[in-house]
Structure of HTH hxlR-type domain-containing protein:
Amino acid sequence: MEKDLYGICPYVTAQKLLTGKWTLLIMYQLSLKKMRFNELQRALPSLTQATLTKQLRMMSDNGLIIRTVYDQIPPKVEYSLSELGERFQPVLNAIQEWGTEYIDFLKGKSS
Amino acid sequence: MEKDLYGICPYVTAQKLLTGKWTLLIMYQLSLKKMRFNELQRALPSLTQATLTKQLRMMSDNGLIIRTVYDQIPPKVEYSLSELGERFQPVLNAIQEWGTEYIDFLKGKSS
DNA sequence: CAGGATCCTTCGTGATACTG
DNA sequence: CAGTATCACGAAGGATCCTG
């Protein structure tokens, strides 16, 4: 089973963590700045509250992001990248670049 | 819908393409050398034929890899990275590095 | 504002059997 | 050797309603 390779093979491990359909997008948003729950929702309009909540919890459990709760009324919760999340930046950059190239490729195809 | 961003946002686009549970692994394998169907299967033991076939077809359709059929008996089919696939290398490298760091993080946690 | 709790559907993944 | 064809399942994702 590939599960055995989680925590062993870098690729299997990374894939597991990035599995979420939105993980990459959230990582990107948070790499720009720390954000509150509603800010994220506005940045990712096609994502429902429930899903966003689950994703954030997963990412928090995995140590990718940090959840900071300010004990006040109205409630305020901020999400930011953890140390590990920050180190993810190179991947983000590489993906952005490659994604852009891929989009160009798509355009060339359709025209 | 986020579908609208496919072909527009690099991250959405990349995430779609890397969605498959095995895409990253296959990309890595093929980045080492072109491989035949059975070679890939041996390299990824926990992956069934059916699934591998589907993944390869998807990746081929997406232009990530190239499928070369040698018309002979017994059949021989080789898979290799396309131009676009080659350009994916930086992402692969970044992921490998980050994945390794993450594994270290996991170890530190459990101990 | 930032969720929690449910319910439901879709899609990816896998098992198995068969083929040129 | 390199697939194709079916069937089935589980989990991720989403819709909706409710709360401190």
Summary: Chain B touches chain A through 43 residues (CB under 8 Å). Chain B has a mean pLDDT of 93.
